[in-house]
Amino acid sequence: MNQKKTDSSYLCLMLALFGAAALSILLFFVVFRFDGLRRGVNTLIDVLMPFIVGAVLAYLLKPSCNMIEEKLTNVLDRQLNADIPATESRRTASGSPAAEARQTASVNKVSDRAVSETEATAATQPVRENDSHRESHTAAQLPQVSKKSTAAVHILKLIPGLSILITMALGILVICILLIMVLPTLLESIYTIVRLIPSSIEAASDWLLQYAGDNETLSNYITEFSSNFSTSIPDWIRSTVIPNIEVLIGNVSNSVNNVFTFFKNVLIGFIAAIYILGSRKKFAAQAKLINYSIFGRKWSERILSEVRYADKVFVGFISGRLIDSLIIGVICFICMLILRMPYAMLVSVIVGVTNIIPFFGPYIGAIPSFLLILMVSPVKAVIFLVFLLILQQFDGNILGPRILGNVTGLSGFWVLFAILTFGGLFGFLGMIVGVPVFAVIYDVVRKVVLHVAAQRKEKETAQA
Question: Whole-model pTM?
Answer without folding.
Answer: 0.66
